[in-house]
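User: I'm new to structure prediction. If I give you an amino acid sequence, what do you actually give back? Let's try with this one:
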Amino acid sequence: MDAATLSPTLPADMTAALVDPVTYTDLERLSQTYSWLRHNMPLGVAKSRDFDPFWVVTRHADILEVSKNNKAFHNGDRATILTDRYTDLMVRYLRNGCPHLARTLAHMDDPDHRKYRSLTSNWFMASNLARREEDIRTIARGFIDRMFANGETCDFVADVSVHYPLHVIMQILGVPIEDEPRMLRLTRQIFGNLDEDLNRSGQARQTSEQALMGLQGTLDEFFDYFDIITKDRRASPRDDLATVIAQGCIDGEPIDSFEAMSYYSLVSTAGHDTVSASTAGAIMALAQFPDELEKVRADLSLIPQLVDEAIRWTSPVRHFMRTATENYVLGGQEIKAGDWLMLCYFSGNRDEEIFPDPFSFRVDRTPNKHLAFGFGGHMCLGQHLARLEMRVFFEELIPRLRSLELAGKPSHSKAAFVGGLKSLPIRVQAA
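Assistant: Good question. You get back a string of structure tokens that encode the predicted 3D arrangement of the chain. For your 431 residues, that looks like this:
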């Protein structure tokens, strides 16, 4: 027996919403979908003609339980993001049976996950990142200067939030500044693969094969670029993260080329896109909740709490998939070995049982037990860097900000995996 034969089964309209990337452009609709599920079917099976059946996990407690148990719930056995049957077959064909186009930390289980994570974990420790704070502050100040210099209106996403964290992570990785536009384009193509404004084809309607080939083309370009970086760092080591990856060893042997290229792509993409989304989400929320902005203006010590609330509020990683390795009782439901589960972080971060008044943006929310960085063994490697970048940015911005308001209609990307604002017109006045 597998998830296809189990009840409860999600209503067809709920399943249709969850598998449709357009749903994720309308956060009110998305939030309503998750709210209904948390209250009526917090753990149910989604059945669709195009997808293998999967459990939809919407409650904070259940997501946390799965995330803590990396032995019973694996990342690597099946696709780690929601993938239709046809695409899954194509990926396995291209990768000789492997369900992943790349093999990053997100696609690994122990013992490999632990070994590969240890290669760079020291770089992302808070104590090591502290020495880079002043450099990051200088970068933040530069982008804020430019924002105010451009006049009272701007598109915060296009002008600031996609560039600031990109520049930070590329400096740490060791990518030349002149190559940053290329890295931005490739990152947006990966996470916006189903959005016509971001993907490689520029098309709103793509077949599964077209979408997959576009994604494959982007990864090939990433891999080709970082192959050159790897050869350079092996010949001429530097004090950067690219050198750590290029010269990394697993069990005494140099890191495999495919895993090395995957590592670079993970750091390059996840290292800035989620921070970009959360920073833009914070700006939008402060414009929509002006009383919260006044709280922070009056007490800058609230900025770390503002950062965590922005991360909870935005939840840029919408979901990850896990595969059960054994029979398991979760939330009163029988999960069978081999079942596929969707962990819905956006839903968990609005769970009324955990967060008082979860649909309000509160800069003084404490405690804030959000799941946006995941939990357990797969907790986000770059969480300390993300918090540092956002804290520094708002420490530089808030004292200089007299007023902030929306200057047009924001828009979100069509992305069921990692998404956020792709346009945020704002009007700002300097203090």
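You can read the tokens as a compact description of the fold. Here is one thing that stands out. The first strand starts at residue 43 and ends at 46.
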